[in-house]
């Protein structure tokens, strides 16, 4: 039996170990990102080599998106929302614009005003994370994380 290079998410069995591995990787990515935001203002952070292109593409495909507002998870995960995001993400599947693990699951804060938390976080694909967080970073909406970390570091020393 030949194995495909991918898993058909629509028909894949629900493997508990696989889910745990996905969860571990998503939490690791979330932790690394938060740590970066504590060390570098988001407005100065680059997440990929294609940040400018991703942001321009995101603005053209989702002109209504306001990075300062809380994400409407129901709208994002509606049938129409999923299709719009799938089209957006697939542009980064291969070629010069390829983003590794572009469709890998990750954690995304609903609002740029909150830390990661159970009620403040949604499961998203990596390209959703990149698009939203690049937009937030460019708008300076994540700089508060760095500022708070610097204040806390000053109190400790």
UniProtKB/TrEMBL annotation:
It comes from the Eukaryota. GO terms for cellular component: cytoplasm. Its main location: cytoplasm. Residues 18-147 form the Polysaccharide biosynthesis domain. Coiled coil: none annotated. It holds the Pfam family PBDC1. Gene3D superfamilies: yst0336 like domain. InterPro entries: PBDC1-like_dom_sf, PBDC1_metazoa/fungi, Polysacc_synth_dom. It is found in: Cytoplasm. Keywords: Cytoplasm. Belongs to the PBDC1 family. This is Protein PBDC1 homolog.
């Amino acid at each position: 039996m030949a194995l495909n290079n991918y898993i058909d998410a629509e028909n894949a069995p629900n493997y508990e170990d696989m889910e745990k591995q996905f969860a571990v990787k998503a939490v690791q990515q979330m932790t690394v990102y938060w740590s970066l935001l504590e060390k570098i203002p988001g407005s100065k952070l680059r997440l990929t080599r294609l940040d400018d292109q991703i942001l321009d593409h995101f603005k053209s495909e989702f002109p209504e998106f306001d990075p300062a507002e809380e994400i409407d998870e129901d709208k994002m995960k509606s049938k129409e929302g999923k299709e719009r995001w799938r089209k957006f993400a697939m542009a980064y599947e291969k070629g010069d614009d390829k983003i590794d693990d572009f469709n890998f699951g990750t954690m995304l804060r609903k609002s740029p005003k909150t830390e990661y938390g159970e009620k403040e976080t949604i499961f998203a694909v990596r390209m959703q994370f990149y698009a939203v967080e690049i937009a937030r970073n460019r708008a300076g909406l994540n700089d508060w994380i760095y500022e708070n970390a610097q204040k806390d570091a000053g109190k400790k020393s």
